[in-house]
């Protein structure tokens, strides 16, 4: 990569949840993949350098998807008129079983990665399956394509279909082998991934907690997605006071950076634990609607100081397009208002922040164009025939609601163009 890169266009980002910052016809200077600064006039020192001029286009931070199941990509939109258990048994588990075949996995994971890029997702936290070899392929495909990601081999040794049930020792061993093999890449890294508390024995959860500590690795799992799951966890783990305490007691709840998908039905104690341990919740609005899990009280959680990012939760969510997760998060917060007029719905800045700088914080300085941030960007070319009379902020909002991958003409991760 060249040392300096200079991009010109209408630069739009959310440095805080309160603000959409708009720099019209400006220059962003990138050094070794890192943003050096934004200037309305190009400083003289750069006059001899080449400028990539995107003219009237919008330059936005690329999207960050904090929760996706790569093996479920083929089932997006399928069987979503069913209830959770039928959906899992009829579609998800048989599909995940096919990843025991590395040839199938290579093809399916390549398609998944291509779609991430197409939809403008530049960083993602991904669940694979229990299979070591195909999970290794997922690491390699993402590295080759230049996407930033945390990738987790699922651990699962009980309460699941026999064909996906691991031997406890094998699960631990294979997880560690992947950590050792793929632990040193700058963009694609391992993350510990117990599927969720009910599908792991105490012994397995405890060993995963030990691995997190030993290798100082982050953790991702599911938490309190629906009420029957919460009840089930309380029956399976009678000696832990809440669902969150199960993870906490096994070293999987903020002892290292932790993502918990959903977190819809939480007690006051759990909210305290989440905040005090700096656990990040992942709001997956499309998925919550599709499988009728509930609606996260986002405003309430934000007011308690909890960090929230957005996830597609493909394939319970039916699209990898994070612009649609932004829109759906706003829509769901408005539905909350229907039930409780006191609730203030999310605004565009807040929801966009979650899908960029908020979620990006799990990766470090990602999701913004402030000095020192990774230059992770997408370039939007909308229809001048329609948008010619709109302000930049209006064009930005219009892209989120009505745009799609056809509007995205370039994608960058750490300064490298990946699509
Ligand atoms: Zn999930």
Give a quick rundown of the structure:
By secondary structure, the protein is α/β, with parallel strands linked by helices.
Tell me what you see in this structure.
Strands 3-2-1-4-15-16-17 form a seven-stranded mixed β-sheet. A four-stranded parallel β-sheet has the order 5-6-7-9. α2 (102-118) packs parallel to α3, α4 (168-182) packs parallel to α5 and α11 (322-339) crosses α12 (348-360). The longest helix is centred in the C-terminal third of the chain and has 18 residues, at 322-339. The chain folds into two domains: 4-62 and 367-417, Urease, subunit C, domain 1; 63-363, TIM Barrel (Alpha-Beta Barrel), CATH 3.20.20. The two termini are 15 Å apart. With 419 residues, the chain is of the alpha/beta class. It is built from 14 helices and 17 strands. The structure holds zinc ion. Zinc ion (ZN) binds at residues 67, 69, 222, 261, 313.
Distance between the termini: 15 Å
**CATH superfamily of the largest domain, please?**
Metal-dependent hydrolases
Beta-strand content bin: 15-25%
The CATH architecture assignment of the largest domain turns out to be Alpha-Beta Barrel
Categorize the overall geometry.
globular
**What's the pLDDT, averaged over the residues?**
96
What is the class of the largest domain in the CATH system? Alpha Beta
Poorly predicted runs: none
Number of helices: 14
The helicity comes to 25-40%
The structure class reads alpha/beta
Q: What is the strand arrangement across the widest sheet?
A: 3-2-1-4-15-16-17
How much is the radius of gyration in Å? 21 Å
CATH fold node name of the largest domain: TIM Barrel
Whole-number tally of structural domains: 2
- The count of strands amounts to 17
Largest sheet: 7 strands, mixed
């Amino acid at each position: 990569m060249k040392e300096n890169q200079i991009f010109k266009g209408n630069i739009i980002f959310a440095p805080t949840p309160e603000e959409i910052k708009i720099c019209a016809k400006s220059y962003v200077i990138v050094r070794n993949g890192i943003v050096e600064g934004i200037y309305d006039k190009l400083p003289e020192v750069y006059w001899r350098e080449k400028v990539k001029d995107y003219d009237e286009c919008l330059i936005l931070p690329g999207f960050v998807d904090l929760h996706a199941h790569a093996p479920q990509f083929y089932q997006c939109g399928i069987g979503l008129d069913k209830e959770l258990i039928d959906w899992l048994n009829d579609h998800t588990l048989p599909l995940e079983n096919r990843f025991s075949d590395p040839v199938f996995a290579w093809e399916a994971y390549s398609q998944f990665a291509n779609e991430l890029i197409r939809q403008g997702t530049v960083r993602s936290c991904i669940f694979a399956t229990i299979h070591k070899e195909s999970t290794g392929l997922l690491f390699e495909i993402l590295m080759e394509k230049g996407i930033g990601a945390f990738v987790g081999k699922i651990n699962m040794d009980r309460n699941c279909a026999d064909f996906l049930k691991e031997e406890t020792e094998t699960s631990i061993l294979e997880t560690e082998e992947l950590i050792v093999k793929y632990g040193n890449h700058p963009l694609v890294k391992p993350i510990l991934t117990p599927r969720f508390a009910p599908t792991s024995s105490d012994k397995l959860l405890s060993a995963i907690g030990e691995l997190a500590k030993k290798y100082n690795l982050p953790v991702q799992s599911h938490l309190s997605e629906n009420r029957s799951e919460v009840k089930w966890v309380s029956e399976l783990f009678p000696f832990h006071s809440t669902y969150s305490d199960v993870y906490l007691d096994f070293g999987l709840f903020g002892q290292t950076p932790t993502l918990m998908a959903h977190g819809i039905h939480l007690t006051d104690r759990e909210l305290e634990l989440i905040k005090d341990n700096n656990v990040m919740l992942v709001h997956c609005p499309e998925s919550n609607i599709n499988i009728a899990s509930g609606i996260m009280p986002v405003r309430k959680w934000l007011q308690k100081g909890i960090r929230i990012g957005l996830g597609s939760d493909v394939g319970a969510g039916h699209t990898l397009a994070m612009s649609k997760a932004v829109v759906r998060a706003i829509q769901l917060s408005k539905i909350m208002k229907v039930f409780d007029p006191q609730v203030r719905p999310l605004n565009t800045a807040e929801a966009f922040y979650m899908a960029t700088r908020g979620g990006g914080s799990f990766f470090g300085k990602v999701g913004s164009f402030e000095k020192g941030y990774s230059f992770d960007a997408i370039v939007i070319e909308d229809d001048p025939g329609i948008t010619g009379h709109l302000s930049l902020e209006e064009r930005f909002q219009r892209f989120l609601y009505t745009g799609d991958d056809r509007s995205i003409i370039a994608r960058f991760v750490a300064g490298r163009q990946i699509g």
